[in-house]
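The protein record passed on for reference:
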Amino acid sequence: MAKSKKIIELEMASDPALLSMMRCVVLHASMNAGCNNEQAENMVIAVNEACMNIIQHAYNNDVNNSISLQVYEESNKLVFRLIDHGNPFDVSKIKKRNLDEVRPGGLGLPMIETIMDKVDFFSSPEGNENILELVKIKH
């Protein structure tokens, strides 16, 4: 990332009960970076959904793991980086479906991709971390 400023870094247990704290952090970080209310609330939805995917898929609902959230500001955009140490993520195995289909499951990533301007998945060089980077251009 070129010329970025870290706004916040938060490490939390992979417990859904703690997601309310993370949502507050994302909302305040987004608002303090100059996003309007609607944009900030949408980023909360996207980051929350990403954390739920980590809890459910990387950690199989085990609350004894951790999720790291890093938020960076780069000129006209915000970058949210989520890091976990769970099951390796394989983008090719994701079963996405249309947001218009009303039934449980498979909506998380399409919703995140609709809200955010860029979504990237990485593994650490050592292969022991999954890294999800969500980018939103500020308007």
Observations:
- The chain has one domain: 5-137.
- The two ends are 20 Å apart (CA to CA).
- The chain is about 30% helix and 30% strand.
